[in-house]
Design brief:
Layout (H helix, E strand, L loop, with lengths): L5 H14 L4 H18 L11 H19 L7
Amino acid sequence: MMIKDRKKFEEFERELLKRERVDFVKNFYILEEMYKEAVELGVFPVRPVLSGLEVDIKIARVVNSVSKVAKKGGKRVK
């Protein structure tokens, strides 16, 4: 199918969105099922939410200390 009148199609979409009601329960159910399928397919790795946080904190400390050293002309500031 090819859209021949883009403006007319966009108007149709706007009107359709105005008339349709959002079903949050249905949408969350669909989202949850899509997430489960993605995990089963290996697209999303299942891991604890805070895993890797320690590494991120260490990297942030190093980056922040480098910027402080550069601001003080090479002298380390604590």
